[in-house]
Every structure is written in structure tokens, then in C-alpha cells.
Design goal:
19% strand; TIM Barrel; eight-stranded parallel barrel; globular; 50% helix; alpha/beta; 14 helices; two-stranded antiparallel ribbon
């Protein structure tokens, strides 16, 4: 049972480094740094983290094959691995269609793009040369890193849909699943099993990582209030099919989305219902959160990641998780 913590590098690097160092001392095993063109570079952030930590494993969660060529991604993660041998993970996912669209980039054949990206980066990270690679997405005449990573770099696949989940089970060392509800996690794991079975692969040793929108505080209402903005944006971008699955009114979801688009933050956040919070976050007192985390591990999750907002105050939330939640599982 491992615990991870996710950070969006939108604050000064020293603050993220401070939080990760605190998390390491508190018993967290992994930290995941998101990759978005509007925020600070994840590799630069992780390089700073490497200088101020000793044990915690760092992962980019996740980079996509469209904005950065896989050869450059291999170069980036290999360079980081030289600074922190055997403490680095590469997370690769298709990215977000809307975000890519802002840059005029088409999300073409996402499952194929991720597969080719994993093939290319894994080959280069092993020290081998790529010659005359002819994929549907990438064409590489010749490429080889002039150095080899100091240690092994596992590759995890960020996956949501059935096809990407099955691909993750076939070619990944682990999977990153954005889900906070047990039903969604259960369904995702069923697709992983199908993918592994088709590939004739045993999933023992395969890391099933669940990314959650998380918030904890001894005062349940304070924990709930902290998660409102995150849940509001999740609901606004959620397909109707998923909303209906969780019994969420499409009319209320549309009203919430309209308020966000108009910049009416108070209206949008106050529109978040208990059903929405239950479906798209894990929040509450340490005791309540621990019960929900236990269900995740029972389903087959091997790493539980606490993501934004973490709690009303990040520093205090990390302290609470370290003292009141992680020990419940590490001591078993």
C-alpha cells in the first residue's frame, strides 16, 4: 500500500519543493507533478525536488505525445534520472482535447499515439538506438541518447477510457487513473484485467495508481468547502453519460457550467451538490477519508494519490494525512 501526492506546479518552485519534502518526511512514497503548458515545467520542478529530498519517487503525471516529441521526452526524463537514480517515473497520457485545441493541435489517434510514444521512449531509455521507425504518428530516421539513465525509469500510462486502460495493462509498468468513486475504479480495473489477459500478462507488480480530488480536515464542512472549486470544474467538463451514471442532474450541471463560463464563481461553487462531491472527490474527516481509501485498496489499487485541493491548508493537510491517515495503512 503506497501513498502519493500530486502537485500542479503553478506556485513558485520553492513552495512545491517544501511541500514534497514535508510529504517525504510524513511517509508519502511518491509525488506526481502535472504537465501543462501554462504552468512551470515539470522536469525543472522535479530537478529542484531531487536536490532537497532523498527517498520519495518523482513522476511526471502526465506528459502527452503531441506537444513534445517522444525523443525529447526521453531526453528530459533520462536527464532527471541521472540526478535521482531509481526515483523517477515517466507518465504518458493522451492529454486533453480542449487544451490541445487551444494550441491548434489535433488529438489524432490517441491510443496509437500513446503506444508509439511508450515504444520510442522505452527504447531510448534502455540505451538502444532507433532507426527508421515508421509509426502512424511518428517517423524517426535515427535517434539515440548519448548517455544512459542512471537506473531504471518505469513508464506509466494515464488512462480513462476502456481502450487506453487495456493498452496500459499491455505495455505499461503502471497506470494512472483519475477517479474518486469506487464504482469508477472497479470498472477501470476490469478493463485492465481484460487488457492483461489478452496480452497474456500477469498484473502482479503492476502499479494501479488512483488520482483523486482529495480534501481532509477535522471539520467536515471545511474539508467540503475546500473541494468545491475542483469538483465544480470536474462536473463542468464531464460527459453527460458519466453524470447520469452517478445520478447527477444534467440540468444542474449545465447551470453550474454556465456560471463558470460567465465567471460567476460564487454561483458556480454554491451549485455543487453532495452527489457531485461524492462522485468526484474524497473529502471529510481523517476517519471518513480513511474508510474510503480502504475501499480503494480492497478493489486492487496499489497506490493512492491525494490530489487538489488536498485540504483547506496544504501544509496542515499533509501533516494530518501523515499523522492520522497513512499510519492506519502502513502499520498493517
Amino acid at each position: 500500500m503506497r501513498f502519493g501526492i500530486e502537485f500542479i506546479p503553478q506556485e513558485p518552485f520553492w513552495r512545491t519543493v517544501f511541500y514534497v519534502a514535508q510529504a517525504e518526511k510524513g511517509g508519502f512514497d511518491n509525488t506526481w507533478i502535472t504537465d501543462h503548458f501554462m504552468n512551470r515545467n515539470p522536469y525543472t520542478t522535479m530537478a529542484a525536488i531531487a536536490l532537497y529530498t532523498e527517498r520519495i519517487t518523482m513522476g511526471v503525471g502526465v506528459t502527452n505525445p503531441y506537444l513534445v516529441n517522444p525523443v525529447v521526452t526521453a531526453q528530459n526524463i533520462a536527464s532527471l534520472s541521472e540526478m535521482a537514480p531509481n526515483r523517477v517515473i515517466l507518465g504518458i497520457g493522451a492529454g486533453d482535447k480542449t487544451t490541445l485545441g487551444l494550441l491548434g493541435v489535433e488529438m489524432s489517434l490517441p491510443v496509437r499515439a500513446v503506444r508509439e510514444c511508450v515504444e520510442i521512449t522505452r527504447t531510448l531509455l534502455s540505451g538502444e538506438k532507433i532507426k527508421n521507425y515508421e509509426g502512424k504518428i511518428f517517423k524517426i530516421q535515427k535517434a539515440k541518447l548519448a548517455f544512459k539513465p542512471a537506473g531504471r525509469v518505469p513508464i506509466y500510462v494515464g488512462a480513462q477510457g476502456p481502450m487506453m486502460l487495456r493498452l496500459a495493462a499491455k505495455i505499461g509498468d503502471g497506470v494512472l487513473i483519475n477517479a474518486s468513486h469506487p464504482d469508477d475504479v472497479k470498472e477501470a480495473i476490469s478493463h485492465l484485467k481484460k487488457g492483461a489477459e489478452k496480452a497474456g500478462r500477469d498484473l502482479s507488480g503492476f502499479d494501479v495508481v488512483v488520482y483523486t480530488s482529495f480534501s481532509t480536515h477535522k471539520d467536515r464542512e471545511k474539508a467540503r468547502k475546500a473541494t468545491l472549486p475542483v469538483v465544480a470544474f470536474i462536473v463542468a467538463g464531464c460527459p453527460p453519460k458519466i453524470l447520469e451514471k452517478h445520478g447527477i442532474s444534467l440540468e444542474k450541471a449545465e447551470q453550474l457550467k454556465k456560471a463558470l463560463n460567465e465567471g460567476k464563481w460564487d454561483v458556480a461553487f454554491s451549485s455543487v451538490t453532495d452527489e457531485m462531491i461524492e462522485a468526484f472527490s474524497i473529502c471529510g474527516t481523517p476517519e471518513e477519508c480513511s474508510e474510503k481509501i480502504a475501499k480503494m485498496f480492497e478493489l486492487g489499487v496499489t497506490q493512492f494519490v491525494v490530489g487538489s485541493p488536498i485540504g483547506p491548508k496544504v501544509y496542515k493537510a499533509i501533516e494530518t494525512i501523515s499523522k492520522e491517515i497513512i499510519p492506519r495503512f502502513k502499520e498493517k
